[in-house]
Design brief:
alpha/beta, Spore Coat Polysaccharide Biosynthesis Protein SpsA, Chain A, globular
């Protein structure tokens, strides 16, 4: 069995491949694979012509982030001890991959670890998607060291450490292949967004830890597939967040969280309407509607007595950010 497969998921990402794949080829120690989600652009031609060292898995249709990785990694099962999943819009640095794998070798109780993720556009600032490790509050709102809501910190070495976190960013993280397959991989129902947080919750439920290490640094462009402000992304985040909580909380606790989140998010709908962002308001309603109509198809992963303890430093990130004015992680 080989040590690690670096695996990039691609869908119509020819420009991202041209821009970012050279750094991965230059700075990586392990096999590089691209899983292609039935791209309709020139991605395959570019890969076969310009990146002959990259191994290719071609899928029959676009299965999204969750399904695409599930189908692709199934073809690599039992070939590698670790996977290192990285978005197609990520630039890497020297030693990025070996540092992550070393962390997992040295910490046998960790299922996954993410690097420090900085912005590819503003390289001395943290990236929105993951920063320096992710946490959850009591309503399961995610936030990061380096990013709370839309407030992003400058990297001044304040998070140059290693520690246990609640979740690792899907933009770039290393994981144990066996633990991924044993838990059934990503929830393909999610299609895209929140699936890595759900995966980490399910790992933590059975005793695994999730880590961050600043020994590895990457730069993430973000928004290569869906812009952060797009209605589709908002819809997926709303629907998938509710699905994730439903799976991972007892029924009574879930509906209490549901009511609290609905109150906050429908207040945001009013803001969207007043500012003329009608499509965003529709996305919130659609997310709630589709969760409610499909929740009976969601398999709950919780036993009656087992709830994962969230490790975030605050109970309500909204209260701390909006009311108390705490914009940075060190203020929490």
């Amino acid at each position: 069995m080989k040590t690690c497969a670096i695996v990039i998921l691609n869908y119509n990402g020819k420009e991202m491949l041209r821009r970012f794949l050279p750094s991965i080829c230059q700075h990586s120690s392990f096999d590089i694979w691209v899983i292609d989600n039935a791209s309709e652009d020139d991605s395959i031609a570019i890969l076969t012509r310009d990146f002959t060292q990259v191994k290719l898995i071609q899928l029959s249709e676009n299965f999204g982030y969750a399904g695409g990785y599930n189908w692709g990694l199934h073809q690599l099962k039992d070939q590698y001890e670790f996977y290192l999943l990285v978005n197609s819009d990520v630039e890497v640095t020297s030693g990025w991959d070996s540092s992550l794998i070393d962390f997992l070798y040295q910490n046998s109780d960790y299922a996954a670890v993410q690097p420090k993720i900085l912005s590819a556009l503003h390289r001395d600032f943290f990236d929105y998607a993951g920063g320096a490790g992710g946490f959850l509050d009591s309503l399961y709102y995610p936030y990061c060291r380096g990013r709370i809501w839309n407030e992003i910190e400058q990297d001044q070495g304040q998070y140059d450490d290693s520690l246990e976190v609640d979740w690792a960013s899907g933009a770039c993280f290393a994981l144990r292949a066996k633990s991924f397959h044993e838990i059934g991989g990503f929830d393909a129902h999610f299609f895209a967004h929140m699936e890595e947080i759900d995966l980490c919750l399910r790992w933590r439920r059975i005793g695994w830890k999730i880590g961050f290490t600043a020994e590895s640094t990457v730069f993430h462009l973000g928004g290569a597939t869906l812009d952060r402000a797009s209605p589709k992304k908002l819809y997926l985040n709303i629907r998938n967040s509710l699905s994730m909580i439903y799976k991972n909380e007892k029924t009574v606790k879930f509906w209490l969280i549901f009511i609290a989140k609905a109150g906050m998010e429908f207040a945001a709908v009013l803001g969207y309407l007043f500012s003329g962002k009608v499509e965003l308001s529709k996305a919130v309603f659609s997310g709630y509607r589709d969760f409610l109509t499909s929740r009976n198809l969601i398999e709950k992963t919780i036993s009656s007595e087992s709830i994962p303890k969230k490790k975030g430093p605050v109970d309500l990130i909204f209260w701390n950010f909006m009311i108390l004015g705490k914009k940075y992680f060190h203020e929490l």
